[in-house]
Design brief:
D-Maltodextrin-Binding Protein, domain 2, 2 domains, 5-stranded mixed sheet, 34% helix, 19% strand
């Protein structure tokens, strides 16, 4: 009987509601599509041994904290296709790297009445080769004799689609690091790369010299931004206001480092 009494007392204690314990608030999600150096799901270690989840991750995290939105919103990194799909079905409140990375962006913008923010940064696509002799100067330079590698899930312009359709072989890779390795090993004749993502890939391979490309040719110059569903207007306005402050003060460049390419040589088309 004594043991039975102890058991009942034990179960009754844990069945009692915990006084003062608050129910965790379910936060809305800002979905980040995984992008090398900008959104890293598992992070990389910086020179001081700290985990770095990417340049865009760091900026948005700062915005959420400084505006108080971190109490209601959470930034999570997903594979790009999953982030886009979840945002499309309104599972996620917002999506970054934004509008131009959506499938049929113009249609989705109108259909879902999306809130389309100012640029967080810009991205530019370059078609790189192992030597300057074989550099592509226009989309029609890609032919059936070319094998081309590209990171899957990214934005695709009409010119990019044309190049991939004309290429004899297209190899989709997971990130820009693999993209550079494909070209370095000779498995492809050309690689379609995104700046700024590829900058860290060169660093990871300890390549100071970038592969050549024609500066006057880019099949896509996009603006990376944050887009939200209309029901999150209040949060969207706070995000945009804080982003503008970071840009005006120059703080965004300090946070992003080399990943911030607005006003740099990487966007030079001359």
């Amino acid at each position: 009987m004594k043991n039975l009494f102890i058991l009942i007392s034990y179960l009754a204690f844990f069945a009692l509601p915990v006084i003062g314990r608050e129910t965790p608030v379910k936060k809305d999600i800002i979905a980040a599509g995984e992008l090398f150096s900008r959104f890293n799901k598992y992070g990389t270690f910086d020179k001081d041994g700290n985990v770095d989840n990417g340049a865009y991750y760091n900026v948005i995290t700062e915005i959420l904290k400084s505006t108080g939105l971190a109490q209601r919103y959470e930034l999570k990194v997903y594979p790009m296709d999953r982030a886009k799909r979840g945002f499309r079905i309104k599972k996620f409140a917002c999506f970054c790297p934004g509008y131009e990375h959506l499938d049929n962006p113009e249609l989705q913008l109108k259909q879902f009445k999306l809130l389309n923010g100012e640029p967080l940064n810009k991205a530019i696509v370059r078609v790189i080769s192992k030597d300057r002799i074989s550099v592509a100067t226009k989309a029609s330079d890609i032919s059936s004799s070319d094998s081309v590698s590209i990171v899957k899930g990214g934005a695709l312009s009409p010119d990019m689609k044309k190049m991939l359709n004309e290429a004899g072989d297209v190899v989709e890779v997971d990130n820009e690091l693999q993209n550079l390795k494909m070209l370095s090993s000779g498995r492809v004749s050309k690689a379609v790369v995104f700046y700024p993502a590829v900058i860290d890939a060169y660093k990871a391979l300890r390549m100071e010299q970038h592969f050549p490309y024609d500066k006057s040719f880019s099949p896509l110059v996009s603006r990376d931004n944050i887009i939200c569903h209309g029901s999150h207007l209040e949060a969207f306005k706070l995000i945009e206001s804080r982003l503008e402050e970071l840009k005006e003060s120059g703080e965004i460049e300090r946070i992003m480092g080399e990943a911030y390419i607005i006003g740099t040589k990487y966007l030079d088309m001359n």
